[in-house]
Amino acid sequence: MIYFRVVLFLSYFLLPGEGTFLNPVKNGPLYVQNPAQGSFSQTTQKGQAATRLTVWLFMDPECPVCQGYTRTLKELYEKYQTQGVEFRAVYPTYTLKKKDIRRFHGSYQLPFAGQKDKGAALADRFDATVTPEAILTDPLGRIIYRGAIDNWYYALGKNRPAVTEHYLRDALEATLQGQPVLPARTQAVGCLINR
C-alpha cells in the first residue's frame, strides 16, 4: 500500500499531465501544459505564454568547423525564430572571455544570443563533447535531438562538397509538425570541448 502511494505521489510530479512543472534547468521558467491542445507553453514572469523549442549550439570561435557553419546557423535562425524556436550559442571553452564571444558574433553576424558556459555546466548537463554540437529541447527541457547540424563534415577536417542530410533542420520540421524525430541522435564532428 505504501508503495502504491509513493508511485502515485511521484507520478503526479513526473508524468506529463495537467498542471505546472519545473524546468529541469535550475531556476528556469515554469511550463504549463494545455490539456485541450496537448502542447506546452512557457509561462514568463509576467504570465505571458509562449511556445518555445530551444536549439542549444555548443560553439568555439577558434574552431574552423564552427566558423564554417555560421552561414547555415544564420539561415536556420531566420527560418525558425518566427515559429517559436529560440537559438542559443553556448561557449564552454573556459579561456574565452565575453568580448571574444561578442567579437565572434559580430564578425560572423550571428543574430542569436551567445553565452559563456561557466564551468561547462550546460555542456555537462547536455553531455556535449564537441563544437559545433546542436541540442534541440522541448519547453520542458527534454532532449528531442542531439548531434550534428548536418552531414557536411564526416570527419575532422574532411567535408563533403554538398550537404545531403539536414539533421537539425529535419528535427525542427518534424517537431513543429508533431512528428517523431528520426534520427534523434547523430555523431557531431568538430573540435573537442576542453573542460
TrEMBL record:
Name this protein carries in UniProt: Thiol-disulfide isomerase/thioredoxin
UniProt key word Flavoprotein: no
Residue ranges of every copy of the Thioredoxin domain listed in the record: 22-177
Keywords on record: Isomerase
Entry-linked Pfam families: AhpC-TSA
PANTHER family hit by this protein: OS07G0260300 PROTEIN, THIOREDOXIN-DEPENDENT PEROXIREDOXIN
GO MF terms held by the record: antioxidant activity; isomerase activity; oxidoreductase activity
Gene3D superfamilies in alphabetical order: Glutaredoxin
Domain of life: Bacteria
PROSITE patterns assigned to the protein according to its UniProt record, in alphabetical order: THIOREDOXIN_2 (PS51352)
